[in-house]
Every structure is written in structure tokens, then in C-alpha cells.
Amino acid sequence: MEKTRVIVVGGGIGGLTAAAYLSMEEKCDVTLLEASLEWGGCAGKFSRGAYTFPVGATLGLGFEAGGIHDQILNDLNIEIDCVLLNEVMTVNIGEKKIVYFKERDQFLVEMEKHFPEDIENIRAFFKHCWKMASPIYEMTRHFPVLPPVTPSEWLRLLALARPNQLKLIPSFNQSLQGVLKKYDLDKNKLFVHFIDGLIIDSLQATSKHASFLMAAIALDVYHRGAFYLKGGLYKVADAMVKKVVENGGTVKRGRRVVSVSKKDGRWLVVDQRDREYVGDHVILNTPLESLGELLDPSLYHKLPRKTKVEKGEQWGAFTLYLSVKEEVFPEYFPLFSQVVPDPLKPVTEGHHLFVSVSSDEDRLRAPKGFRTMTVSTHTNLSRWGEQESYDQLKEEMTNFILLQLETVLPNVRKGITQLYPGAPKAWEQFTNRPSGGVGGYPQTVKSSLFYDKSHRSNIKGLWFCGDTVFPGAGTMAVSSSGFHVARSIKTDLKLK
Ligand SMILES: Cc1cc2nc3c(=O)[nH]c(=O)nc-3n(C[C@H](O)[C@H](O)[C@H](O)COP(=O)(O)OP(=O)(O)OC[C@H]3O[C@@H](n4cnc5c(N)ncnc54)[C@H](O)[C@@H]3O)c2cc1C
To answer: Which CATH number does the domain housing residue 396 bear?
Structure first.
């Protein structure tokens, strides 16, 4: 029996999920091509000696029983060592140190401690968010696809419809800002900043533009379970690669795909050294901005308009990777925290930091007596100009971030043994994201859910997964998109 050849371009979590699922099918012959020498893309790692630094993603979500990662990893028969956090993170905002508890009641008590003046409205606001998120969470267990494009996607969606979802309908076109207003919380600037800081990482938007339903999911998800993964989230990527190989698939690193075209009715994929790969299906786990360069113009022309994304729609990230002596940490320092010394400033450009620290027992990350840290902030890509100003900005951002970090870890500079900045060009170079744009597109009312971008291309045998298509950013979301593609290909091939 001749096998169906599937070529997956990109070994981020999206592409890896699709590859791992399809490699389980006898009828599929999977080849996975990754440009860099590391797997996992934004959820990958890099190592320097005995130190391992997560590139971007550090906080594990969706690993709880029945969560997206849990379901996918179970299907793939993969076990991951992860620790459930009762304290998800500490948000240092102005003078406040707000502990984000997993338990909802404990979290509301913490809210009362910090926002006593508005606590009744805050309680009602969160309860409303959680109530709206609950039926969506139940639905996501079945991996619904938005926007539905084919009759089978519509049928699947309709089959999942339940009476308790009717209450969601009025919220589809609501912004988070509208709901904050309804609860009279829009005037509480500190609370709004707190919320903006929580949602910017997953939705790439603040309350002003963010879709309320997407925000409700983002604010609910921490209470479902947030996890520390020993070593880091790259463990998921590595385990998936291993699965593909065990199942007879082929995986290749250092293969940057430079063109995708059609030849004699099949797909022709060519890498940077003119090596050719022929397939019946091609899955692109690359940001949609790459399509203009990768695809033959006659094919690009046929893509849905929404999919032809110009550069500049994503945020950039600026990151600092540090190895730090244990002695500069106080007795307790949260594994995950946000640092926002001045809440009057925007939640970008170093004014808002997401700080992840390796656990003192995590020998996969650092030797005894040391820890590694990944510190990240959103940055506007248009700020990053020509070489001279670029280098200057990189230095300024590094110093500024260290200053901000000192507000929670006063002796940090004394303890740093290695420091690597990650500006947009580094992101472009190591994760192949055009211009260094990361995190997918802002999940606004006009661009999310039914308005989001499909994993389908309208061209037979060409598929997309990753954070620039539904359901967006985060390892949990991109893994879903990889699942969607694998399921659609299996349906095409009439496999169960
Ligand atoms: C700073 C930062 C912090 C984050 N923190 C978290 C977090 O704590 N928790 C969380 O869940 N999520 C987090 N995220 C989001 C999450 O990391 C991403 O949404 C997700 O990993 C993206 O996966 P992906 O598969 O879409 O793409 P990517 O991770 O970008 O992977 C795509 C892969 O394709 C390869 N590739 C691209 N072009 C080509 C080509 N032409 N040929 C061959 N290969 C190619 C790339 O090298 C890359 O390995 C964070 C993101 C960032 C940037």
C-alpha cells in the first residue's frame, strides 16, 4: 500500500502535535522539517554549558486532567513531569504584591485584600467571567474548530451545542472593556492594569480591544491549573519528536524550507540547500506572514484574503536570559511573577515583565547553587530600526529591565553569572518568525473566534497550524491547532 506522504514544516508545538498524531497512522508517512537546531520554537530552549534557558514559554497550562495538553499527551502516550502550582504567580504591581491563587475562593479573598473599595463588583466580575468560560472549557475538550468552514466542521459544532451555551451569544461581540464598565470597574485604573497584565500574554491585547469571551477563558484557565515543568516546556516538544520517530516518521533539524509549490499534482518542498521533499499534504507551522515568501505566487494568490497577512500585526518580545546565583534569592521567591513597578505606564516595553525562575531543585535547568531566569516583555517591532539604534535600544532595554527586576530582587546584578538579551532579530534568527513577531495576533472582538483564521487554506493538501491561526497563542492553543490539522487530514483520508 502506498502511504500518504505528509510534510510538516516547523517543529514548534503546533507542527509537532500534527506530526505526532499523523505518525500514528499506518497510512501516513510523516517528514518533519525544522529550520533551527532546537525543537519547540517559542516553547523550545537553548543551553550554555550546564544551564538551560527556556526561549519563551515557561508556564504550563492545560496539563490538568482533561485539559488540552493532558488529552493530547494521553492520546500520544506521553508522560510529562509537571507540578501543579497552588500559587500560580505573584503580581508585583506598584506597591502591591498580589498572589494569584489557583483556588477561586482564595483568589477572591486576595482580591479583597488589595481592592477592598470595589470588592463586590470585582467578585461579580470574576464570577461572570468564570461562568462564561465554563461552557467554553467543556466544549474545548472536543476540539471544536472556528470558524467552521466545511459541512463537517459545522456539524461538529452543532453537535456540541448545549442549552447552557445560549448565554454566550450576547457576549460574542463584547469587548472586555465593555464588561469592566458594566461592573463599574473601568475607573479603577489599578485593577484594569492588573487585568491587562494578565491577559496581554495570552491575548496579545489589553482590555480596551480584547474579546470578552477570549479574556474570560484567559482569566479562568489559571484556576483550572497552572504547572511548572521540570526542565521546561521543551520537554513536551522533545517527547513529541521522540514519538514521531518511534512511529516511523522522519525528523530533520537544520532544514529551513524556502519554497513550497506544486509539481505534477504533488507538493514540492525545498530547503535552504535545495534538497527536495515531495508530499501529498504540507502542513505549515510557520507564522502566516511567512506565506508570501514560502508559497509559489500562483498558490499564494488562491489563499483566503484573511490568511494573506502583511508584516507587523504581531508584537515582538524582548527577553533576558540569566543564570543567577542562588544566594541572591530570598527564602521564598515565586517561580512565576509579573513585575510592574509603575502601573501608570503601558504593559509593554519593559514596564511590565513576566519573570520565570527555575526551581532550586531543577537540575535540568541549572547546577546546584544556581538558577536560570527568563524575563520577557512585549515590544513594538517598529521601534527596532537600523543597526546602530538597534544595538543602543537593546542595551537600554537590558539596563531598564534589570532596574525593574531589582525592585523585586534587589541583589540580582551581584548574582548574575550569564546574561543574554533576546531582541527581535534574535527571535527572527532562532525561531524563524518574520521580523521577530511572536505570540500570534491580538484576540480582539473583530479577529477572534468566528472571525479567526482557519487551519484550512482553500488549497487541497495545504494546511496551517500554530499561533497565527485559531485558537491563537500559547502552547495549549497551538497544540489544538495541530490536532485540528491532523484530524482534518485524517477525515480527508477517510481514517478514523
Ligand atoms: C516570550 C514568550 C513567552 C511565552 N510564554 C508562554 C507561556 O508561559 N506559556 C505558554 O503556553 N505559551 C507561552 N508563549 C506562547 C507560546 O510559546 C507560543 O504561542 C507557541 O509556542 C507557538 O508555537 P507554534 O508552533 O505556533 O510556533 P513556533 O513556536 O514559532 O514554532 C514554529 C517552528 O517552525 C520553525 N520554522 C519556521 N519557519 C520555518 C521554515 N521556513 N522551515 C522550517 N522550519 C521553520 C521555527 O524554527 C519554529 O521552530 C510565550 C511566547 C513568547 C514569545
So the answer is: 3.90.660
